[in-house]
Amino acid sequence: MAETVEFKSNGSTASGYLVKPTAGSGPGVLVIQEWWGLDDMSGAVDFLAGHQAVTSKGIGVVGFCMGGMLSFIIAANRGDKVKAVVPFYGFPQGPMEPDWSKLTCAVRGHMAEHDNFFKPEAARALEAKLRKMGKDVTLTVHPGTGHAFMAPHNALGTLNKEVAARIWPEVVKFLKETLR
User: Fold this and answer.
1) Domain count, the chain
2) Which residues are CB-contacts of 124 (< 8 A; sequence separation ≥ 6)?
3) pLDDT digits (tens, 9 = 90+) for 9-61
4) pTM
């Protein structure tokens, strides 16, 4: 069942698209799309955490491209509620990096080998930095992939259906296990 919902955010009201299981309840997962509509995330986390259909003790966040970068930022800023993050080909760099000491969730990121926006070397450096801080972070660089390799609309011509089909069940499994 899906519906448009409203929730408090930044002293005003924001809206989102809520999808609930057809029977029962389950974990709450915030999905951040690639480029547009990226404000008011903290309000969405609070909304999901308080929703009657959400049974988990924490919220998961999945983000793509810029949404991947923002998923890291919301996780570092909302360690009180965000317990699992799956960023795809996006992460904060340089002055965009948040205070990583506040990052408390598990992170399982998926990066592209051929990416001019988010270089694989920078992803590996971030992973090493966060692990050195004791964070539970794995950033996998998928060989032969380009930026937006999961995007079904294939706007960049980089869709890799085989990699996407292999990764998505792993993402779902990680979220289910982490957000029990």
Assistant:
1) 1
2) 139, 141
3) 878 888 888 888 877 788 888 887 665 444 487 888 888 998 888 888 889 99
4) 0.86
Q: Tell me which residue of 25, 32, 87 sits closest to 56, measured CA to CA.
A: 25
Q: The domain containing residue 160 runs over which residues? A: 2-178
Residue with tokens 């930095």: 129
At 65, which amino acid appears? C
- pLDDT digits 0-9 by tens, 139-171: 999 999 999 999 988 989 999 999 999 999 999
Pairing of strands 137-146, 106-114: parallel
CB-CB neighbours of 118 under 10 Å: 24
d(CA 97, CA 139) in angstroms, rounded, equals: 16
The two three-digit tokens of residue 61, written as one number: 């966040």
* CATH code (residue 39): 3.40.50.1820
In contact, 69 and 41? CB cutoff 8 Å: no
